[in-house]
Amino acid sequence: MQQQNESNRGFSPFQFQPIEQTLQTFQWFSMMRANQPVYHDEQSHLWHVFRYEDVTKVVTDYSHFSSESIPGFSENSFLNGTVVAKDPPDHRKLRNLVNQAFTPRAVNHLSGRVTEIAQELIDGIKPAGTMDVISDIAFPFPAKVIAELLGVPDKDWDIFRRWASGGEGVGSEVSTEDNTAQGQQSMEENMYDFFSRLLAERRESPREDLISSLSVAEIDGERLSERELVSFCILLLAAGQETTKNLIANAMYLFTEYPEVAERLRQEPALMPAAIEEILRFLPPVWFTIRRATEDVQIGGQTIPANSIVMAWNSSANRDAAQFPDPDTFNIQRDPNRHLTFGHGIHFCIGAPLARLEGKVILPMLLEQLKDIKRVPDVPINVRAGIVYVIQSLPVTFSH
């Protein structure tokens, strides 16, 4: 009975809470991996999976753990019908579309413009000697990059920015408040109309942007439907923006928590790619993945009944000592570092290549151009903890 009481003190998804409280969740993960690695919460009827090996199975084995027909994830949300909420064979067609958008060539083609966007934002905050990492850098940077990738006209930036802000974690939770649900539906309808119009314009006057490519896209000789194309654009806005925003925010939090690491990266910028992987492992932007058991399935010595909803905690798997020696140490030279932050298998995060590129561009620039970065004292740091892990505000000071 004590174990169950301890289990119920664990993570409370979709709540705002101090960062210290959220970080204590890693202690809960450790206890659960040791004592109840596959745990059924009788109150919520959810199954929770904590160990690296078991989490990998859940996110990889789509024949037993489906992405379809999950309330609030692949049903009743903007994710419905998108690549992240489809199983094979339908998944393959949509994933091929994703691959067209995120080929290494397509992503690297953006690197010059990504650098320009990063420099514009840094130039804007330099004179003040202070900034809020979230509102001044972490949010606008990936939003502007996604707008650039899609080919959103400059005149539409303000509305695109509001959608990116309102889409924070969109689809990752289900509100019980009618007005919130209605607002969400209205926003998604507006986005649908916007991207439908943009696709039609590009069919008439193509440009060198992703929207133009999508407007004539074919997969296996089959044209994609208007809904599939527009849903993909909305998914890019949400997934491509959110992952990078949280990566940058978490990186800057860790650089202020471990200033010796920040200084080392200034001296040895070649370590940044490995540092980004450790940031993704140590404090991941995405904390768990949701699946539905397609049949009774054995995992971790437990039988999960068919149609049960399973939460696979990649944030716990990333701290599993069976996979990561000394897992609670922030080690920017960790090798190997097979973290599960971006998932695994056919549903590997669509935004991962872009998030890594953006991190490798802007984080060295921030460390090189802003010296002595420190958090503003006595300002509490709050996070919204759900599928995505979102620091709400991170005010810092610096010199240059």
UniProtKB/TrEMBL annotation:
GO terms for molecular function: heme binding; iron ion binding; monooxygenase activity; oxidoreductase activity, acting on paired donors, with incorporation or reduction of molecular oxygen. The keyword Metal-binding applies. InterPro entries: Cyt_P450 (IPR001128), Cyt_P450_B (IPR002397), Cyt_P450_CS (IPR017972), Cyt_P450_sf (IPR036396). Signal peptide: none annotated. Keywords: Heme, Iron, Metal-binding, Monooxygenase, Oxidoreductase. SUPFAM superfamilies: Cytochrome P450. The keyword Endoplasmic reticulum does not apply. It holds the Pfam family p450. Coiled coil: none annotated. Belongs to the cytochrome P450 family. PANTHER family: CYTOCHROME P450 YJIB-RELATED, P450, PUTATIVE (EUROFUNG)-RELATED. This is Putative cytochrome P450 YjiB. The lineage of its organism: Bacteria, Bacillati, Chloroflexota, Ktedonobacteria, Ktedonobacterales. The gene is yjiB_2.
